[in-house]
Every structure is written in C-alpha cells, then in structure tokens.
Design the sequence.
C-alpha cells in the first residue's frame, strides 16, 4: 500500500534557532532525497512497516512524503487497515537534533537534525500533519476528505486528476 501525507508543517524562518525544521532544512530534506528509505512505523514503536519512497515540499511549504507500507506482513497489514479505516489519520516525523552550547553566545544552539522515522499515528504532536491519500495495489487512489481544507491547501489540486479522483469519507 502507498500512503501519502504531510509529515511536517511549513518550516520556520531563516535564522530560527530551535528544535523545529526551518524552511530551508525541509527543502534540503526533499530536494536531496534525504527522506528516501527512512523507516515507517506505527506510533513511533515496533518494527519497520515500510519506508519513504518520495518526498516534496508543497506550495504551502509543508513537507509531504509518499510511503510504501509492506502489507504482506501482519504488522503492515494491520497498519494499512488502520489507515483505510481512518484510525491512523495523521503523521508524525521522528527526528533527533544535535544541540551544543555556544561559548561565544553563551546559549544553546540547535545543530543538525536527523530524521529517524515517519510514523502513522492517531494524533500527531504537530498540527496539520495528516494522511492525504492511500492506494492499495491495483485499486484507485483514495484521497482523504479533510475537514476545513480548501482546494488551495490540497497538495493534489495542482494535478489534473479528472473524474478518476476518488474521495474517501472515512
């Protein structure tokens, strides 16, 4: 099963010193393929259920990814079912941040951020990180109906999908 979604909201401005990703860090992650093959988990636990196969930053500056869930395993099939049933509706990006004390500035500085995994979750820690679509082998792509989302916020809006576009209401 393929699952697509927003795994990080728009990045922070240039010069930001904190634990969240900046806009340029998000663009670097997607542009340099640094998310490819990152493990996919459920609720940040257990074994790897699949991996990230593609990523991009959308027009709103959010980091999106496409994940392949290995639904030929028991754990993967359960996770795929949770996505289809609308239980695992959100995504959460697991990452570490190198933090060091700056002698010059006499404060902590956030350094490199390392993505560890993307998790399918019931409720993520960050707002606006959600599953936008899924596709089972040999079936139509199912696009999530997201409450309060305008077409300008829809990452699929820029593609001319015509009448084959299927909305799932779960």
Sequence:
């Amino acid at each position: 099963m393929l699952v697509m979604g927003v795994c990080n909201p728009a990045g922070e401005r240039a010069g930001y010193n904190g634990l969240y990703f900046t806009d340029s860090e998000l663009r670097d992650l997607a542009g340099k393929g640094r998310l490819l093959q990152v493990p996919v988990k459920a609720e940040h636990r257990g074994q790897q259920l699949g991996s990230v196969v593609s990523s991009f930053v959308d027009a709103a500056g959010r980091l999106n990814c496409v994940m392949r869930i290995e639904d030929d395993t028991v754990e993967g099939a359960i996770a795929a079912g949770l996505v289809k049933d609308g239980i695992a509706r959100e995504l959460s990006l697991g990452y570490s941040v190198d933090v060091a004390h700056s002698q010059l500035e006499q404060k902590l500085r956030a350094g490199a951020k390392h993505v560890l995994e993307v998790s399918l979750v019931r409720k993520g820690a960050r707002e606006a990180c959600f599953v936008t679509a899924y596709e089972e082998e040999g079936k139509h792509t199912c696009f999530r109906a997201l409450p309060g989302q305008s077409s300008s916020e829809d990452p699929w809006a820029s593609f001319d999908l015509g009448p084959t576009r299927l909305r799932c209401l779960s």
About this structure: The mean pLDDT is 89. Residues 74-84 form the longest helix (11 residues). The beta strands are 2-8, 39-42, 45-57, 63-69, 90-102, 107-121, 131-135, 141-144, 166-168. The two ends are 17 Å apart (CA to CA).
